[in-house]
Amino acid sequence: MEFWLKQLCKAFTIHFNLPQAAAMSSRALVLLAGALFECGLAYRTTGGAAQLARTTEVKLKVATLNCLEVGLSSSTPAGFATKSRAWVDDKDTDKDGRGRNPTWLTQQLNKFWDDGVALVSLQEVDQPSDLSESRFHSTVRTTIGCPTKMPCQSKKKRAHYIQLSNDIGREETAYLAWNPKKLKRTKTKATHYPGTGLMMFEFKVFGSGKTIKVMAGHADSAPPCNAGSTAACWGPQKANITAMNPDIVMMDANQNGATALMAYGDNYAVYPSDPQAMTSMKVVYFYRKLAQAVENTGFFEYLPKGTTCAKLVCSDGNTVDCCGAEGKYAKKSETNIYNSTDSKVKASKALTKTCQYASRVCGGYDKGKSSAELVTLLQQPDGTITEENVADAAKSLDLTELADLIRYHAPEPSWSKKTSAQEDIIIYKKPTVGFISGEVYPSFTSGRYAELGRTEGFPNTVWPSDHLLVTAEVTV
After folding, report:
1. pLDDT score of 252 more than 70
2. pLDDT over 70 at 167, yes or no
3. Tens digits of residue pLDDT in 94-105
4. Cα–Cα distance between 192 and 213 in angstroms, integer?
5. Which residue in 216, 212, 207 sits closest to 161, CA to CA?
6. Cβ of 436: how many Cβ atoms within 10 Å?
7. pLDDT (average), residues 339-348
8. What phi and psi values does residue 323 have, to the nearest 5 degrees?
9. 237 CB contacts (<8 Å, ≥6 apart)?
10. How far apart are CA 67 and CA 45, in angstroms?
11. Any idea where the domains of the chain sit in the sequence?
12. Which CATH architecture has domain 59-283+418-475?
């Protein structure tokens, strides 16, 4: 079918008259316009005569959604404080007992497909089957495998999405999905923005023949940079992100929405355009990040009792049973593996996470998150501990006692806080992409989600992720 459509399209000229167009029914004209659109042609009438003209712009719907990894929304202090400040989890992604009912994310993906959304950037996807059970993993007809001398067609499942990775090859819990009726990936290899999970892909737009560069993923905790920036940048390489020249960026900017736009420069604009428009909100336990460190390491179960941040750090005299490097912790040391000399310690997920979370807790670089919570936990009466010096204050912190220090097993309901940020954004290049409209859904200020949030907190049963859905319609 695709071959014959291409031949039909070639038969049309860029401009020609249809003398009988005036006699055609409105329904026939609609059908004609739809068919011509697939050829990259547009129907119009001029002075009573119908003409075809090569289209220059195509409308596309794009979206970004942080689905929140299920491990981060557990029914513990590491999750969300909702339902009258009790710690619960409203996101049911457990397949047991749900039968054939699709998960919440699969339902969202099916809606994107039905609504004709061309591009969807997903972050913190807790289970890949959410995508494989959606319409973005569709059945297509193919002649592959058919005998060469006889016509036939077979059905084959094809994934119209890809899992993202960082530049050292580690897979991210992020995906980019696209609608094959709107776009087709080119043969240009995807590229990484150094030090992050952001990736850029190239697509051909059906209807115009244009190619666009699309960047998607979850940003790092540090802001990005451009050629003229002196601020900290995404990734240790401090690469010039404007040199990648993306047309559309759909991402979780990791609480750096406004800063992200600055990095792309004057040629770019962002939706939501108001920096005060929040796209994420949650009511959480005051020590939520520290609670996550406790949970994801099995309560630092592989560390000997009395292991402090100072004892754990690797140095010239301590190169085993340690984390960090050269006497300090850094973000790059999060990937270190805690190689225990204890023969009873077996490889496990908690073991591989030991250095990752020990570095975040002890390093003092996880600004606004673990470091901010640690300042409160260790604060002295004179109030001299800040995020700038909390790493020094944490040297004597016993990681094996952290759960008790934050009252993990008996959390105070009053120790809950509401946090909000503009994280989920769509950035577009103004010379190549036109903005028509956008929406942030659901609303924090009106509707059932907002109403329930006043008594049950955020997120709640109306929308189970602490991030809102950001969509935009653009022209390319």
Report:
1. yes
2. yes
3. 445 555 678 889
4. 12
5. 216
6. 11
7. 68
8. -135, 165
9. 194, 195
10. 46
11. 2-54, 59-283+418-475, 306-394
12. 4-Layer Sandwich (3.60)
